Amino acid sequence: MILSHMTIYGCPKCGEFVSKTSPSSSYRSTGIRFTDGKLRGLDAIHDYIVNECKKCGHLFWIKDDYKIGVYDFGPFGRKDEEGNKALEAKVPNMGFVSSARLPDIYGLHRMLATGDFTGKKQEIYLRKNLHWSFNDRYWDLRVLFLKDGDQEIWEENLKALIPLIRFRYKDTLYLAEIYRNLGKFYRARWVLLRAVLPSMKNAREVIWHECKKKNSFLVPYGKGKLNEYYVDGYPDYVQVDKGKILNGK
């Protein structure tokens, strides 16, 4: 993978450094797209904008207020040497700075329960990633619920997502998948009737087929591609205005 730049942030509670790397514009993942919209694979890049501090465990939104600086890798021959040296002086052992990591299922649930978000887009971001975290667990372990209360968190989160995305056409496939995950197969197929764009065809057919089988669990459906219908949750590296989400707009 050819990297473009790395941005260093500091935890607002303890100051621990955390990094976010961005690939060059030519990067394309070879991961697999799943019915929940997320791209999964060893080279899938997840550009998280919430972080759990490795040192103190603080959960926070990664935003410019906490930015220390940007390291330029100069993937096409141009590199900001002066800026890089200035950042290296601020951040010792920069090569060992940990990457941003998404809070786990219970951390995301805690952020939602305490209202640690601003506006609809931030809430959708947290809820989608909570949904995907459960599905990651299922895909890795073939078990969806591990602790008492997990099923309640899962169902409450999916039900809360429905009114947030119900009228957003780009989330038609995702809405159908939520109903399927809840076991509401007829409702899911009814929603799929709205998914008429050619780019929705593959996922629509797979979700429809799984509804007929009465399967409510996650399934893969194709190779990874940039997909505009899942942009708000950042399932992979896509170009969007993250500032709008961080500002809750």
TrEMBL record:
Highest taxon above the source species: Bacteria
Protein name per the record: Uncharacterized protein
